[in-house]
Design the sequence.
């Protein structure tokens, strides 16, 4: 029998607020264990949570970017469970009335669009981190566990799709598009390797063409787009083999092992979870009225899909479009500034992805550490368009501006890179070259066009490369016809 | 009104080990509580908005501002066991 795979994705996004979801503790990755904690996020008796307003604004922005309905009124629930990563023995989450529901995100794979429906986007708090000591770091063999609550209470947004994806490639494209949107909104640093954006996938198989859903398996622990795709490819193959052997799929959670390239079952027996959700009595409902919602909507920046369309219309090549629309590149702001100041988008994109990127890599600096502005790029592009700078000289000036030597005009002057394109100024040098090369001069007069290149080269040589070759070439033509 | 409660299941969810006598004892008590609560369910509540909170207020927010956290020593002072700046807890057992 032929099977088709059905995939749904659950994404967790840690918001990059300054403080935690329900207390004022700092949100900071990599701090010493248990240094960003307080009575609220440690679940000490009597401590009361208070909702971070910015986190609500940001989840509404995410929901709007995903075409969701924003609940006029939503509320928090307690999700009860027994595991030491949450000191309260429950996680504050949302249950029947999430902030956002019923959206969609369109992705493209192999030139074909797929509309992925979003079931819901809800607000919750992240858990602490556990280290299992002894037994090779595995939960079940551990001697004891160590808990760091720095991450407990960090605002966490969960985005749940409908099972609308059918291939690992689509799953990856979805994850990447969502990642770009989150970065564009500026609501998370969305680092997969640090876990500030995490993707879990539900996968099941069903006979091709069937409408029923098979038994689903949840796959976790993929910390790159590539491992998401690999893990799903593996899991689909595994399930296909199980069914082909006449066995049945067990509903379970499986961990992706990046090194071994396999998914592994986590528990021998999975009891269906009973989290006994009930309304969080310590928090009043969240109400997002139309005024607030529309105010948030107005502040949403241009999203990646719209950006890609605009950049393509501006004539950018696919690589530039991918980098500049991805939401994660500091180059985008500079590009937009330069174009808004009147520069040619194609030239600017080429410089940013070429010279500027190479410079930053070579010098191992961040763009923000350089002095380069959009106006610099615009000015440089004008000098180049006017013929005052050759293409090579423009790149040298760019390096000078990046190194903080001044604005493009100053750098070009200081480095003596301004091209001589004034006919009067070049006339003497051209005459000299023609006098030094009588044979070539004669061939030029006889209409031998091939000799022009050689003569232009000679003029370039005696002007130290500063002559505008196009102007020189034109002047030589004039001399030939004189 | 008689209400059946799977007290063994509730005990398992709460990770509390109960003897057979205790199961019966607490089961009866919990059933009594649920029976009492069930009286409320007999009220005609059609058209009444579910209330999750007794106070007629919404949007009790705080601005996204950092307040000083506890110093670690204080944070760990209530922990039965601490180790290298971490809370130390018993191993998590597999569910039986």
Sequence:
């Amino acid at each position: 029998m032929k099977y088709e795979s059905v995939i749904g994705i659950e994404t967790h996004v840690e918001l990059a607020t300054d403080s935690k979801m329900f207390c004022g503790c700092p949100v900071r990755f990599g701090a010493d264990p248990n240094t960003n904690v307080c009575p609220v996020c440690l679940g000490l008796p009597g401590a009361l949570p208070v909702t971070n307003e910015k986190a609500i604004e940001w989840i509404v922005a995410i929901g709007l970017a995903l075409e969701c309905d924003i609940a006029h009124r939503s509320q928090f629930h307690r999700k009860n469970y027994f595991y030491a990563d949450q000191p309260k023995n429950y996680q504050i989450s949302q249950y029947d009335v999430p902030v956002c529901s019923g959206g969609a995100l369109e992705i493209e794979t192999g030139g074909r669009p797929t509309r992925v429906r979003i079931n819901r986007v809800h607000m919750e708090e992240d858990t602490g981190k556990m280290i299992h000591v002894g037994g090779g770091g595995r939960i079940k063999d551990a001697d004891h566990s160590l808990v760091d609550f720095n991450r407990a209470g960090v605002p966490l947004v969960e985005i749940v799709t409908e099972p609308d994806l059918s291939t690992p490639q689509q799953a990856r494209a979805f994850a990447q598009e969502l990642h770009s949107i989150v970065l564009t909104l500026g609501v998370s640093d969305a680092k997969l390797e640090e876990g500030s954006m995490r993707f879990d996938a539900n996968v099941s198989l069903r006979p091709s063409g069937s409408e029923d859903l098979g038994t689903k398996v949840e796959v976790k622990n993929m910390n790159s787009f590539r491992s998401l795709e690999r893990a799903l490819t593996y899991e689909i193959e595994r399930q296909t083999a199980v069914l082909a052997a006449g066995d049945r799929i067990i509903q379970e959670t499986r961990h992706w092992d990046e090194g071994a390239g396999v998914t592994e079952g986590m528990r021998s027996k999975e009891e269906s979870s009973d989290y006994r959700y009930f309304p969080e009595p310590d928090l009043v409902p969240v109400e997002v009225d139309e005024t607030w919602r529309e105010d948030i909507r107005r502040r949403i920046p241009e999203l990646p899909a719209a950006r890609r369309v605009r950049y393509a219309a501006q004539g950018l090549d696919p690589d530039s479009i991918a980098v500049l629309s991805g939401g994660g590149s500091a180059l985008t702001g500079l590009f937009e500034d330069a174009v808004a100041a009147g520069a040619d988008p194609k030239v600017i994109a080429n410089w940013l992805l070429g010279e500027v990127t190479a410079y930053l890599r070579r010098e191992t600096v961040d763009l923000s550490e350089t002095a380069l502005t959009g106006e610099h790029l615009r000015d440089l592009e004008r000098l180049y368009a006017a013929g005052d700078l050759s293409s090579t000289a423009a790149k040298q000036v760019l390096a000078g501006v990046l190194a903080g030597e001044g604005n493009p005009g100053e750098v070009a002057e200081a480095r003596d890179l301004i091209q001589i394109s004034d006919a009067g100024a070049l006339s003497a040098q051209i005459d000299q070259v023609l006098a030094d090369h009588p044979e070539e001069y004669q061939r030029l007069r006889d209409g031998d066009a091939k000799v022009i290149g050689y003569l232009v080269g000679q003029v370039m040589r005696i002007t130290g490369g500063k002559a505008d070759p196009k102007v020189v070439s034109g002047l030589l033509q004039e001399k030939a016809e004189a | 009104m008689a209400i059946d409660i799977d007290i063994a299941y509730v005990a398992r969810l709460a990770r509390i080990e109960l003897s057979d006598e205790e199961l019966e004892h607490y089961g009866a008590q919990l059933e009594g509580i649920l029976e009492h609560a069930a009286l409320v369910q007999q009220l005609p509540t059609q058209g009444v908005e579910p209330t999750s909170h007794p106070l007629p207020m919404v949007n009790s927010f705080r601005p996204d501002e950092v307040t000083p956290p506890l110093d670690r020593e204080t944070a760990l002072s209530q922990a039965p066991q601490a180790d290298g700046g971490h809370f130390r807890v018993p191993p998590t057992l597999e569910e039986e």
The interface with chain A takes residues 13, 15, 52-53, 55, 57-72, 75-76, 78, 83-95 of chain B (CB under 8 Å). Strands of chain B lie at 61-62, 82-83, 86-89. The mean pLDDT of chain B is 86. The helical segments of chain B are 7-13, 20-41, 72-77.
